[in-house]
């Protein structure tokens, strides 16, 4: 049997600060398999966030659930964006220009 690898899970519970938890998993573990091994309460919270269009990322890079985790990965559950950042900047710039702040 091969040695376990070290990964971190970073997610934000429904009413709290971002949480970083360390796990040891099989070297062939995918994100989907990792989720299946989580404690029930944590998996339920993550499932709720995924239904709200959250996505998985490793060090900020979007990944699918088929991604095979590597030693030292930080798996992140990223909430879906509410607004397009580019549109938000444009609206803010127009508003500030009209109010004379620019």
UniProtKB/TrEMBL annotation:
Gene3D superfamilies: RnfH-like. This is RnfH family protein. Belongs to the UPF0125 (RnfH) family. SUPFAM superfamilies: MoaD/ThiS (SSF54285). It comes from the Bacteria. InterPro entries: Mopterin_synth/thiamin_S_b, RnfH, RnfH_sf. Coiled coil: none annotated.
């Amino acid at each position: 049997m091969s040695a376990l690898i070290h990964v971190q899970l970073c997610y934000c519970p429904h009413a709290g600060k971002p949480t970083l938890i360390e796990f040891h998993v099989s070297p062939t573990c995918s994100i989907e398999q990792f989720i299946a091994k989580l404690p029930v309460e944590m998996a339920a919270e993550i499932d709720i966030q995924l239904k709200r269009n959250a996505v998985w990322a490793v060090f900020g890079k979007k990944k699918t659930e088929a991604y095979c985790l590597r030693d030292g990965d930080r798996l992140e559950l990223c909430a879906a964006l509410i607004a397009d950042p580019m549109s938000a900047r444009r609206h803010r710039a127009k508003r500030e220009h009209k109010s004379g702040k620019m």
